[in-house]
Amino acid sequence: MRPIAPSLTILSVLLVSFIISSTARGQQVLVYDPSVQQNIGEQAAIDAGYTVTAVVSDVAFDLEVSTGTWDLISIDVPSSGMTQTVVDAVANHIAAGGKAMIGFWNLDAAIGDGLRTAFQVETAVDYTFPLPIYAWDVSHPIFTVPNLIASPIPIGQDAWADDGDRMTAAATSVELGGFVDTATTGEAAIILGNDGRTICNGFVYDSFVPTDLIPLIQNEMAFLIGGSGGGVEFRRGDVNVDGVFDISDPVFALASLFIPGSPEPGCGDASDANDDGIFDISDAVYALASLFIIGAPPPPSPGGACGTDPTPDSLDCLDYPTCP
Prior knowledge:
Layout: H1 7-20, E1 28-32, H2 40-47, E2 51-55, H3 58-67, E3 72-77, H4 84-95, E4 100-104, H5 112-119, E5 121-127, E6 134-135, E7 164-169, E8 174-178, E9 188-193, E10 198-201, H6 210-226, E11 230-234, H7 248-258, H8 268-271, H9 281-292, E12 307-309
Parallel strand pairs: 1-2, 1-3, 3-4, 4-10
Antiparallel strand pairs: 5-7, 6-8, 8-9, 9-10, 11-12
């Protein structure tokens, strides 16, 4: 039988830790969102647990891109124009191997030339009334992980005079969704480019109800940041990477989350004890329950044995030395 004596101490640690902070340590996302009505791109990143820096000026954006280290850059520009400063900054970020996603209404204009090249979009043609979004590749993770996306996503409002662009992918990119129900040349709404590092959305986010569109935007973010599963083998719940799942793991997790200067987990996937795609206090709570509450579920696969992550998410495992 598992011991229960430490339960009061554990509960105290959890309570103090929760009071100190409830903010998850997430990947760094830079959001450029001038002139938005609903802040859908920014809110999607915040709700997903990422560490978000939001800017509204081209000068601030250029400075952040050039001086920061970003897991993802997200651009949400529904009505205003975009300066060449912003275009050049995101294009340079992508060219250097960075990840980026965009929702923009004017890809067909002269200012869109550099964006189309950077995001590997061949053509873009205006449409002036909001259109629903259909999943063309229904099995792709942007429609399934972590949120299951209904198709089509219905329109919410006619917010702007120009609502986006019907697109055609370049030869090196992939059309994942569109404005009609079956894959049709010139009707793409979502294009994946640069070997899976960029997503171009040819629609205005403000045309949709936030609760309808945010799950898709979160899926796109998760796919770009975290890839699609597989990779290094690990044991879920083994936060301190010593090859054993025990009390030392939630203790390590709580210290990492709430004590400044504490080491971060060596394997992000292993630290995600409840397999929700985020490393936060809920993982320590799940691990403690699993260890000390009779009948509580163990960490999801790969738990007791080494294995790769079966769930696409925004976490990575760069090294786990105790698995082959």
